[in-house]
Amino acid sequence: MTIEQRTRNSVVGQIALVTGGAQGIGLATATLLSQNGARVVIVDTQHSSGAASAAGIGAGFIAADVTDTSAVDDAVDAVLSEYGSLDIAVNCAGIRHSSPGISITDDDWAHVLDVNAHGVLRACRAEGRVMLQQGGGSIVNIASMSGSIVNVPQAQAVYNASKAAVILLTKSLAVEWAPFGVRVNSVSPGYVETALTAQSRANPERLSEWLHRTPMGRIAQPEEIASCVEFLASDAASFVTGHDLLVDGGYTAA
Questions:
Q1: Is this structure's pTM higher than 0.90?
Q2: Burial degree of 202 (CB within 10 A; 0-12, 13-18, 19+)
Q3: Helical spans, DSSP H, in the chain
Q4: What are 189-221's pLDDT values in tens digits?
Q5: How far apart are CA 54 and CA 63, in angstroms?
Q6: Under 8 Å between Cβ of 87 and 14
Q7: How is residue 36 annotated by DSSP?
Q8: Contact 145, 252 (CB under 8 A)
Q9: Residue 171 to residues 62, 72, 141: CA-CA distances in angstroms?
Q10: What's the rounded Cα separation, in Å, for the pair 120 and 69?
Q11: What is the mean pLDDT of residues 119-131?
């Protein structure tokens, strides 16, 4: 396949799994992949909304929680059983948490890490088993610019730590799996207009600070993140692995 063909037919006919695909960046990514010819399966804990979102874009749906190792393994096995391969995996399931460091409880730490970091590991491990055996595949993990910088004015040490873990896990797996044709990359969004940021965006002082510190002067739409995810997931990025793509409107460059 030529470079031109890879770019033009980057995801056509490929089997894609998207965790956390019921809403936000996950749904935008699942939608874009489906529109561009991939066969998509959404995996999410939100059974009713997840199933409805999947039906709306002609995708499959599996109810599973990324904190449950067996459920993640079963979801990946179900995709393999139904479609015969797994070409693309986008691990988007995650939660937010903001509190001063001195107030973080052991339960807070354990829960955020279990979803945001351990959940990505569980997914990558299950997806990687399939891709390594079939001799190729592409995984994109959704991290955050918070894995590279410390956000202000909100205090979110545990969230930041969880996303930093995702970035280095991504790079580590990329190096391990590159000889076997499996690419692993991450996308680190800045502030995005999703349900997860709705409460913070409703705070005028916080939103003003976010916009002031973002050179482009606005927050992103989920579709703007999805297009970057699709690029890394696709054959158009066939020589890209171990990369963390910051999509932050210039926030970390300022």
A1: yes
A2: exposed
A3: 3-8, 24-35, 47-56, 69-83, 106-113, 119-134, 157-177, 198-201, 204-213, 222-233
A4: 999 999 888 888 999 999 999 999 999 999 999
A5: 11
A6: yes
A7: T
A8: yes
A9: 28, 21, 10
A10: 11
A11: 98
pLDDT at 138: 98
Query: What are the angstrom distances between the C-alpha of 118 and each of 16, 68, 240?
Result: 21, 10, 24
Q: How far, in Å, CA of 238 to CA of 215, rounded? A: 31
- Decide: 224 and 166 in contact? Cβ < 8 Å: no
**Given 83, 159, 191, 251, which residue is catalytic?**
159
**Token couple for 69:** 């190792």
Nearest to 46 by CA among 72, 79, 17, 20: 20
Residue 68: CB atoms within 10 A of its CB come to 14
Contact call for residues 140 and 182 (beta carbons, < 8 A): no
What SS3 class is residue 91?
strand
Residues whose CB falls within 8 Å of the CB of residue 122, separated by 6 or more in sequence, listed in order: 66, 67, 69, 72, 73
Residue 1 has pLDDT above 60, yes or no: no
For residue 78, give both structure tokens. 């179900």
Contact 55, 61 (CB under 8 A): yes
Is residue 83 part of the annotated active site? The answer reads no
The amino acid present at 97, given as its one-letter code, is H
Residue 101 burial (CB count, 10 A): 9
DSSP state string for 171-191 = HHHHHHHGGGTEEEEEEEE-S
